[in-house]
Amino acid sequence: MQGAHLVSASFDDYQSLVDAVSLADVVICAIHQILLQLKLVQAIKEAGNVKRFVPSEFGTDPARMEEAMEPGRITFDDKMVVRRAIEEAGIPFTYVAANCFAGYFLGGLCQPGFILPSRERVTLLGDGNQKGIYVDEDDIAAYTLKAIDDPRTLNKTIYVKPPKNVLSQREVVQIWEKYIGKELQKTVLSEQEFLAVMKEQNYAEQVGLTHYYHVCYEGCLASFEVDDDQEATKLYPEVRYTTVEEYLKRYV
């Protein structure tokens, strides 16, 4: 990467973390092991020079998921543990709630376990009418980089909610059907059937399916309004985001 300066550090070597963050004005974390960030929080606090920390979140706002179902709620609970540690340490932060990664949801037409859209059939989760919010991963990165030195986002949560990408599963399927020129055979998976299937999976898969449940059966992402000063597409209108239609066209 042009202009990048790579520094070796390890979560198994605390001093190396302190040395690494001492060289940075902004720290953006994207690891999956959420609680491992507590070491990073301590290192940032000790270094004392970091002007903004963006912890590994980039999904559903955990502060709004207090009633989330087991076992998937562990993700939100762990993120809140990290948030509290950041705030207690007095570290300047920005939390990025980017909703649904397009790569996980759109390629499979919002069906868990699918990464490519079928040209024959689709299973609708419930009535398929709950709204989700789908964001291209490159766009999440672009909005995050815009926010890291913006005083308007200091010590706040920003939401990535592209207005053209607030769609139900049925609407996503309809876009795909338009592209392929045919209607897919549709099967409905009821809430009870989904939960029964989920219980038969291993722990890690249950965690992931719980998130699908809250998005596709409860509509947790679109159940509240976001103020313009916390919504990324309003804060940074110069960033051109990828629409669901544009994203699905890649598979034609």
Task: Write up this protein.
This protein has helices at 14-21, 37-47, 73-88, 102-105, 137-147, 169-180, 191-199, 203-216, 232-235, 244-249, and strands at residues 26-28, 52-54, 94-97, 100-101, 121-125, 131-135, 156-159, 166-168, 185-189. The chain is an alpha/beta fold and 252 residues long. The protein has a 3-stranded mixed β-sheet with strand order 4-6-8. The chain has a two-stranded parallel sheet with strand order 1-2. It has a two-stranded parallel sheet with strand order 3-7. Helix 1 packs across helix 2 (37-47). It is globular and about 55 Å long. The two termini are 31 Å apart. The mean pLDDT is 96. It holds the Pfam family NmrA. Belongs to the NmrA-type oxidoreductase family. Isoflavone reductase subfamily. Its EC number is 1.23.1.1, 1.23.1.2.
